[in-house]
Amino acid sequence: MLFHSYTFLFLFLPLAWAGFYACNGILGRRAGRAWLLGASLVFYAWWNPIHLPLLLGSVVVNFWLARAVGDERREASVRKRLMVLGVVANVGALAWFKYLDFVLRSTLGTLGYEVEPTGIMIPLAISFFTFQQIAYIVDAYKEPGRARSFMDYALFVTFFPQLVAGPIVHHSELMPQIAGVEPYRARMSNLSIGMTMFILGLFKKVVIADEIAQWPDAIFGAAGRGDAPTTIQAWIGMLGFTMQVYFDFSGYSDMAIGLARMFGIRLPMNFDSPLKATGISEFWRRWHMTLSRFLKQYVYVPLGGGRAGRARGYMNLVITMLVSGLWHGAAWTFVAFGLLHGIYLVIQQIWSRRFRLKPDAPQWRRTFRCAWARLLTFMAFAFSLILFRSSSFEGAWLMLKGVVGAGASEGSGVVSVDQTRALIWIGSAWIIAWTMPNVQEFMRRWSPALDWSPSRTKWRFWTLQVAYPAWGPNPLWAVPLVAMLVWSVLSLDRVAIFVYWQF
Amino acid sequence: MSEHAGITSGRASGTALARTHAPFVAALLALSLLVFGGIAAFNVAVDPFRAFRTEFSEKRFASAWVGTRRVSKGEVLRHSECRVLLLGTSRVERGFDPAHPGFGGVAGGGCNMGLGATNLWEGLRVFRYAVRHEPLEHVVLGLDMLMFNANRQFEWDFRQSIFNESRRYPDYRLGTLLSRYAIDSSRKVIERSRMSVTDANDDRGFLARGVHSGFDYRGESVKLLRGFMTNPKSYGPYVDDGSRWAMLDEILRTCRERGIRLTIVLPPSHALDMEMLWVSGNWGAFEVWKRRIVEMADAENARASEEAAGAWRVPVWDFTTHAGRNAEELPRRAEGEQWRAMRDWLETSHFTKEYGDDVIARMTGVQREGREMPGEDIGVRLTGENIEAHLARLRSDRGWFVRAFPTDARMVRNLWEQAKRARRESAAEGG
Questions:
Q1: What is the ipTM of this complex?
Q2: I need a labelling partner for A332 at 20 to 30 A (CA). Which of A105, A302, A326, A489 fits?
């Protein structure tokens, strides 16, 4: 089920919420938890029930494995073997469902064999729930002796707001909340904060991202079929997709955090205005923050991080970003996307070691450097998205040629794009992304996300130091929010799925 | 006030927080309910797709409903018991009356599910829906070659319809109440109602259109022909990627397995339309297309003979030719000349209901009362045995047409030259 569907908004969500608090009130917390688990499974199965047994099987097996791994009575070597088995089994399942076709095409295909697609359907959200469960098993090994109930664990993995596209929640963030008392108290504050975040996220996704999507879809689609875009079309495609994917995924994350909050649960922040970043490493600390955190904790650090020398540190960075690229999709274009970001990070590290601003540098140089770094970071990211969005290297090459001015000449592009309209929308989205506070900042007084407060995040409004109003539970705020909700709901007739849904 | 403090400091501050947030939540919910309720009530009252069929909407707006939309077509199926399903493009939608005696008359349960600018992908989904929900006895599948063009994707409003298999019923139903599409359709119906436009599809999805006096047949036809030549969704260019044949195969197989009668018909095409296929170099593809349809139908018939003692047969009827009633000349608008209506054609793309009646009569052997049974000069029942002779006949009909109507043939060729030139210029600009 999609968050931005009529069924979810008008049937599932009200029923899930009312049922949860009714169960809590009448039958107790255990029943409330069971209701929420049931609702999450219905949410998952609505899309394609065929994959529900796989999700349930994965939850049961991983819970059992984690218990065994975390059982202090067992020998350390046995626990380690079980942990490795758990990681390999999870990665194996992910590889089977998501990467088998890719591996067969890349190996047998290149040897000249005809490779028919296996026809294996990728289970929804497999990348997300696999990562969460790997972390749980690894941590059960590191910190044995933790006993959790199966219900808490199952709800941690399947809790519907974060199930299909994150944030990738760590068990230490969610399970204590599930086991605690806060979610089971029906609070108006949770409802008002949650609904506000959800509406803002819905608007970002349905009204902004989906409106912009039409242009990159048409332009990248044509490039994929071998039709070269003109220079302006290529730029509309590249910048349009940058805005689409940002508003799409950050909108989704806002919705997820808002939904969880309606049930009294706080999820970690996943986007912190990444397009305002002034460097690639800062960008990855702000973009899909929970994935970056996972990769750092469970890939980069175990590889040795930056401790084993500079060259090895660079290599570890590149490997981590390659994993990130492959996580996004089973195609060489995603691998190239990850590789490019690995290279970006290495270049940035070398650059920042060599060219540091002196402490006594004048303010104008600092401002100039900040503005230049933000633009460069933004363009580097937008450029890498050509690989991310293209269905093939041939398509990416045509887009690239268009971007550097070597595409089709003006007026001859195959795609018909209303350029003025596209530029107005993309330009407006860009201005919003660069100058306005994000949803968490807008609601800063109410600590909407877990472990995040505005004091820890720098406000970087580049040149505009405007004091934006902060949200509060004032009935007047209901007017613009309802307007945004109505605009979003009326636009549901043309929406696309989330870009990150497929991962 | 810090929410964090609110979360952790017990029941007293929880109550204070509730007092702070309750007015906001109440305002948000009340306002939302009011606006969404208002929009839904408006769309139920106008009922642009005739989904709810209230007394008020039927009285005020039913004659002006937007019946050609996919959503409306779905509602026709939902509200009727369909035993005879007519599938195809707008030619079927405008030409085949589902209440024709050949389909059992008004009580026969005929439904016209012809869709404008459709393709076989959409047609298959309409068919699947009907198989699931209707007591189908007979399917009449009107095929046009452009339905097999891989460039022809589904139309936007198909996604909103009940035929969209990736949309569950609650999403569909709420979409007919709370979407810009629904509001836009309601607005259109109100406009049509104000202007007393009543040329909507009937209860069975049939759109019996006529033309107004003074209608410029030639001008309209030139526009359509030019569109066909240049539109990648039609014949500019025609792309057969093979995917549509699997869809036809599914329809054939399902009908055989479920014992549903199936008739395949290639509806009449005007001679100028046929000539457009010839001059644009698509004639070869057209012949291949026909051969394959016949081959598939024959294969299914053979399978049926083995399984059901030959009781089940798929007839393939072809009404496309350059000659006969398809060669009716388009009236010229010479000065002083009195305007006259065409007998069988609305323009070169669509035939009239009367011609459609004769086509149905020819296929079913039953004619409407008071109307003469058509002769064997229209329509040929194709089999693997007569297909080659028939194709040769069509080529010779084409030769006759060029000799009999040299000006019209030249006009089509000129249109094609213009279309080619435009394409060349565009390519040259592209470097």
A1: 0.87
A2: A302
